[in-house]
Amino acid sequence: MVQGILAPLQFAVFLISLMLVMRYLASGQGFYAATGSVLVKTVVLYIIMVTGAIWERDVFGRYLFAPTFFWEDLVSMLVLALHTTYLIALFSGAVDAERQMWLALAAYASYLVNATQFVMKLRAARLQEHLWAGAGVAGHPS
Prior knowledge:
Layout: H1 2-27, H2 31-60, H3 70-92, H4 97-135
Helix pairs in contact: 1-2, 1-4, 2-3, 3-4
């Protein structure tokens, strides 16, 4: 239930933030709006990762890297690493504003790969469920 709410919320935050980051890179305007949006996106990401790990433990008995979600979890670690690197770059001042925004875009590209993985897995599960229901597989909850 929580994932069903947070996933679309995270995607909406991502789209808004992506527009703000692109605006900043194109015009040099709106740094604080873009930065704030990346921070919000990162907080939502952390929340969805923690709740997802709890769900994975409840369903598969492990917080991460259950065989069913191994590749999704592996890419999720890259997504977390890039978002966290952005935070370090922002708060340390290690790189300038433009490079911070490029780092945010790299994090967003990895997020899109990860989101695509989960959507494909969800669609495959629903298709499998539909096929089972249509075939009248015994023991399948219709």
